[in-house]
Specification:
Layout lengths: L7 H5 L2 H10 L3 E6 L13 E6 L6 H15 L3 E5 L5 H10 L1 E2 L1
Parallel strand pairs: 2-3
Antiparallel strand pairs: 1-2, 1-4
Helix pairs in contact: 2-3
Amino acid sequence: MIITHLNLTNLRQHKAEILAVCQKYHASNVRVFGSVARNEATETSDIDFLVDMPKSQSILRRVHLKLDLEEMLGCPVDVARADNLPELIAEQILQEACPL
């Protein structure tokens, strides 16, 4: 699948597939933040996902989640853990994060 217009509505049409990939890596409470959540995405934007993951999951698992989502969606993806956000921008990310 390739998302041609990056917006929350288009992403939500593929919610089941996205959540299935996330579950494979024990990621839950999947949210979207950044330009897609603000409806400001351009054709060069990435999709920023915010997830909850057990602390026991290695960074390598998060990298594999990112790669699997990129392959499925056909665009760049970032995956951030909610419990590991940079302090300076954590509040902004949490405020703009929208449930998938």
